[in-house]
Write a structure and sequence with these properties.
Shape of chain B: globular
Oligomer: heterodimer
Number of strands of chain B: 3
Structural class of chain B: mainly alpha
Number of helices of chain A: 6
Helix content of chain B: 55-70%
Distance between the termini of chain B: 24 Å
Helix content of chain A: 10-25%
Distance between the termini of chain A: 54 Å
Structural class of chain A: alpha+beta
Chain lengths: 266, 206
């Protein structure tokens, strides 16, 4: 889809480490804001990646609401220019413009060049520390969290997002002859180049503030709440009930933590 | 996963993985395959049904009784549960794999798969995608892959199903001469497309 194309292009330019997770549909984009909670659908194969699904819950919903709202750090905006030459996109340029400067969508040099601005929002390490020290887990536990605990699902929290700064119009054109082509708000201009015959055009407007990609951290909910930015494979959100113990798991989180520690020590 | 537990991240590894699942489907009764296929056509037309079916199967895999579902998802699910409403794992596990692959693909690709099922052209698309994956090794590097003309007899261009199926994976395509610009980011989608085409064509006994 045009949205996925845009996401791929942005990630290609801004994420060389490969740890940004692309949002796959515009419809689900709002569920990946900072602090939103996610579960990860395990991939059934070695060859495609696991998918993240939002659970309509933010970390603020599971913490006691008696502290100031945590702030987010802004990064960028990153200016991405997509130059289209005839039928083929030939280059993209990225430049970070001054922080806080609103550049918006600009038609750059000629009729076949377009651009967009994206910026990042992230939760700083110090914010996490303060948030988890000052605010305690809400009791009783939120119903959705109880369900996830019952299923043994790991829960992740969105720590950073890349989002659009202004509305972006993405137009997809297909030629009766020649290659398929997608461009940023450039289709009308391309018609003027006189190359090929356009037979189909689809345009989607991606609103400002749409999340294109995100990073996550693992939540660990034992005796207290922890946010693990670099989890290892053994770390789980919820402690599994001790083997051989058929009793119902305790609902009180601190009690569960004690029991877990007891079994670990033993 | 093959019996020796090792999978290499290349076309051979993918084929081994998919064949392991395919062997399970081959044991299914032909009539059951037909029922599953008909249900899947309905599920692929309805994204919510696809999600509901995947959720139900996940619930069943954690050894819980499975709640009945309505619509096409329900028709598929009923083929995979015992009278006590527990999943029959031999049937459900390959199906979970297939749903995982299908869920990696886009809505447009789902529509094209349904058309290919109806027109019995799954194996033709499979040959093309398989050829591309084999030639684009190593997948971690960008490359340009020429497509063999014998695999493009049913047409190649911006509006043909083969073109759109590959383009939706995030690949850039060219018409003349026919070739594909391989992008490492497209690997997951392309592999999921290969797995979907293989297992659907197995189910339809093409």
């Amino acid at each position: 889809s045009a949205f996925e194309w845009l996401v791929r292009r942005v990630i290609q330019e801004l994420d060389h480490g490969g740890d940004l997770i692309p949002v796959t549909s515009l419809q689900s984009s709002t569920g990946f804001k900072p602090y939103c909670l996610l579960v990860r659908k395990p991939a059934s194969s070695w060859f495609w990646k696991p998918r993240y699904k939002h659970v309509n819950l933010s970390i603020k919903d599971i913490l006691e609401p008696d502290a100031p709202e945590p702030v987010l750090q802004h990064g960028g905006p990153f200016h991405i220019r997509d130059t289209v030459d005839g039928q083929l996109r030939t280059s993209m340029e990225v430049a970070a413009t001054g922080q806080g400067k609103v550049a918006g969508r600009v038609l750059v040099s000629d009729s076949s060049s377009t651009s967009l601005n994206v910026f990042s929002l992230s939760v700083g390490p110090n914010t996490w520390q303060a948030l988890l020290q000052e605010r305690r887990l809400r009791q009783p536990e939120h119903g959705i969290l109880q369900q996830l605990r019952h299923r043994g699902d790991n829960v992740y929290v969105v720590t950073e997002v890349l989002q659009t700064q202004k509305d972006v119009e993405v137009t997809r054109t297909r030629r009766r002859e020649g290659s398929g082509l997608i461009s940023l708000a450039g289709a009308m201009c391309l018609q003027g180049t006189g190359q090929g015959h356009l037979s189909q055009k689809k345009t989607v407007t991606i609103p400002s503030g749409s999340v294109l990609a995100f990073r996550v951290a693992l939540l660990v909910i034992h005796s207290n709440l922890e946010v693990i930015l670099f989890p290892d494979k053994k770390q789980k959100t919820f402690q599994p009930p001790p083997t051989g113990d058929s009793r119902e798991p305790p609902t009180d989180i601190s009690m569960k933590g004690c029991i877990s520690n007891f079994w670990t020590d033993a | 996963v093959p019996a020796n537990g090792t999978v290499t991240e290349d076309f051979q590894g993918l084929r081994t993985e998919v064949e392991a699942v395919s062997k399970e489907l081959a044991l299914m009764d032909g009539q059951l395959c037909q029922l599953l296929l008909e249900g899947l056509e309905g599920v692929l037309r309805d994204q919510l049904a696809l999600q509901a079916l995947e959720e139900a199967l996940e619930q069943g895999l954690s050894s819980e009784p499975v709640e009945p579902l309505g619509g096409p998802a329900g028709a598929v699910l009923e083929c995979l549960v015992s009278p006590s409403r527990m999943l029959v794992l031999e049937l459900a596990v390959p199906f979970v794999y297939l749903l995982g692959a299908l869920n990696t693909l886009s809505k447009v690709q789902h529509q094209l798969l349904v058309e290919a099922m109806e027109l019995k052209t799954l194996s033709r698309q499979l040959d093309l995608v398989g050829s591309l994956l084999e030639k684009s090794a190593p997948w971690q590097k960008r490359s340009t892959v020429s497509l063999p003309p014998e695999l493009l007899k049913s047409g190649w261009g911006g509006e043909t199903p083969a073109w759109v199926l590959l383009e939706e994976c995030g690949l850039e395509l060219r018409e003349d001469p026919p070739h594909v610009h391989w992008e490492p980011q497209a690997q997951g989608h392309a592999c999921a497309l290969y797995a979907s085409l293989t297992l659907l064509s197995d189910l339809s006994r093409e």
